[in-house]
Amino acid sequence: MTMHGTNPRASLxxxxxxxxxxxxxxxxxxxxxxxxxxxxxxxxxPNVHDGxxxxxxxxxxxxxxxxLVWGVLGTRHSRFRSLGVRLRATPAYLWNLRRGRTGRYLGxxxxxxxxxxxxxxLLIVSAATGAMQVTVRFFGxxxxxxxxxxxxxxxxxxxxxxxxxxxxxxxxQRENLARAMLTGRKLLRRGxxxxxxxxxx
Length: 201
What we know:
The protein is an all-alpha fold. The protein has helices at about 10, 25-45, 50-75, 85-95, 110-135, 140-175, 175-185; strands spanning about 20, 185. The protein has a two-stranded antiparallel sheet. Helix 3 (about 50-75) packs across helix 5, helix 4 crosses helix 5 (about 110-135) and helix 5 runs antiparallel to helix 6. The chain is elongated, with a radius of gyration of 19 Å.
């Protein structure tokens, strides 16, 4: 099926650098992919490779600390400064998304912002309670163990929803957003199914 007479596969071709702009800085991109790998490692190793599981958990805590700092000191699209604005725009964005209208954001769109916040908060609680479990004070405490287990299980549907959202918006905007997180660059042009939402506030 084609949209507006254009082959969708062609729309996801490697873009000409002249058509793109740098959005995601290198530290943020490295953080994103390292976190994804470590979360996967932490998920598959409990009760099997406990040493590796703990190591992954401590590394995740370090990455989360870095992200909080980089959210203040990083480049424009790495900062948290527009967090409140985009969270307030999330309900309207999701409503428009039902009709295939995505708006055009160089940085995270409102739904992506809400997902980022949810994942960060869940990871902070999961990693922190995991670290607490191996201390003398909190070892064997039921609410620490239950909180760690619950937040760890909640991460999986959120990650799946995150990936599904990336795929959906990539198709609607005819832009490979996963590749943009690898290269750091996004298209300057406005997609054919986007609204007149400003590029970035």
